[in-house]
């Protein structure tokens, strides 16, 4: 089970995709809760930031059932990934590479001249890439 969310700089969702889940509201709550942790990590990194190219925030917080990971772009757009905590096959470097792939696909969406920044992402190519990532995680 996996969920992926792209959150704008102003903390509203640009894209949310999840596998069929029993409680969709619980997922939205986890994503919005993780934004507080993302803000804390960004402010802590801002004070002693040595390498500004490191965008991966790592594990934001674990719960009994899920692990929540975060990534932030240079433009302060946040990516949140929620994976099942029973999935022990996923390593930190695999999560990091998945976020890079998501970031590259997000960049392709932003470069589309027909996309208005700040609108919900409705790109079929982006959706297909996210779906393939979620299949890989499950």
UniProtKB/TrEMBL annotation:
<protein>
    <recommendedName>
        <fullName>Trafficking protein particle complex subunit 2-like protein</fullName>
    </recommendedName>
</protein>
<dbReference type="GO" id="GO:0005829">
    <property type="term" value="C:cytosol"/>
</dbReference>
<comment type="similarity">
    <text>Belongs to the TRAPP small subunits family. Sedlin subfamily.</text>
</comment>
<comment type="function">
    <text>May play a role in vesicular transport from endoplasmic reticulum to Golgi.</text>
</comment>
<dbReference type="InterPro" id="IPR044760">
    <property type="entry name" value="TRAPPC2L"/>
</dbReference>
<dbReference type="GO" id="GO:0048471">
    <property type="term" value="C:perinuclear region of cytoplasm"/>
</dbReference>
<keyword id="KW-0931">ER-Golgi transport</keyword>
<dbReference type="InterPro" id="IPR011012">
    <property type="entry name" value="Longin-like_dom_sf"/>
</dbReference>
<keyword id="KW-0333">Golgi apparatus</keyword>
<keyword id="KW-0963">Cytoplasm</keyword>
<dbReference type="GO" id="GO:0030008">
    <property type="term" value="C:TRAPP complex"/>
</dbReference>
<comment type="subunit">
    <text>Component of the multisubunit TRAPP (transport protein particle) complex, which includes at least TRAPPC2, TRAPPC2L, TRAPPC3, TRAPPC3L, TRAPPC4, TRAPPC5, TRAPPC8, TRAPPC9, TRAPPC10, TRAPPC11 and TRAPPC12. Interacts with the heterodimer TRAPPC3-TRAPPC6A.</text>
</comment>
<keyword id="KW-0256">Endoplasmic reticulum</keyword>
<dbReference type="InterPro" id="IPR006722">
    <property type="entry name" value="Sedlin"/>
</dbReference>
<keyword id="KW-0813">Transport</keyword>
<dbReference type="GO" id="GO:0005794">
    <property type="term" value="C:Golgi apparatus"/>
</dbReference>
<dbReference type="GO" id="GO:0005783">
    <property type="term" value="C:endoplasmic reticulum"/>
</dbReference>
<dbReference type="GO" id="GO:0006888">
    <property type="term" value="P:endoplasmic reticulum to Golgi vesicle-mediated transport"/>
</dbReference>
<dbReference type="Pfam" id="PF04628">
    <property type="entry name" value="Sedlin_N"/>
</dbReference>
């Amino acid at each position: 089970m996996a969920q992926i969310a792209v959150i704008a700089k102003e903390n509203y969702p640009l894209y949310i995709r999840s596998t069929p889940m029993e409680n969709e509201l619980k997922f939205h709550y986890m994503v919005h809760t993780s934004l507080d942790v993302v803000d804390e990590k960004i402010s802590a990194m801002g004070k002693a930031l040595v390498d500004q190219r490191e965008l991966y925030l790592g594990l934001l917080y674990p719960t009994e059932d899920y692990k929540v990971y975060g990534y932030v772009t240079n433009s302060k757009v946040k990516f949140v990934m929620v994976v099942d905590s029973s999935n022990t096959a996923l390593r930190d470097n695999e999560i990091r590479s998945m976020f890079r792939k998501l970031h590259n696909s997000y960049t392709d969406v932003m470069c589309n001249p027909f996309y208005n920044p700040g609108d919900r992402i409705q790109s079929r190519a982006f959706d297909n890439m996210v779906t393939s990532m979620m299949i890989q995680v499950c």
